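Supplementary Text 2. Reproducibility record for the structural model of the 119-residue chain.

All settings were left at their defaults, and a single model was retained for analysis rather than an ensemble. We include the record here because the model underlies the residue-level annotations in Supplementary Table 4.
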Amino acid sequence: MNLQEKYQDQQLEHMIDQAMIYQCACPAQVARLMLALREVHGYEQACLSRDDAPLRETHHLIAEATAQAHALLQACLDSVIELEGWDASHLTMPEGLRKLQQQEIQRWLAGRHEQAGKP
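Retained model, structure tokens:
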């Protein structure tokens, strides 16, 4: 089974980069998993492409499971993008979510200052 890649690697990496900037890791976790599954699937495909591939059935089983997991996570990412209001064409985090993340960071920093006895 081949991977159906709706999102390019660069697009997934863009989502991960935004997570680092805006401290919103949930969509980035899905993107990271998809990239990792692509690596595993590619590795298994390489094993299957060899004429003398021992344990061909094992490689096929792993490649099939990887493709199914990728499809499930891709559908999940589609839903996350829609639910959170991401710009689907550029995979840009919505402004409202960025503001919410900034508020959470400010709240956390304020709590740290209070714990340290600083105004």
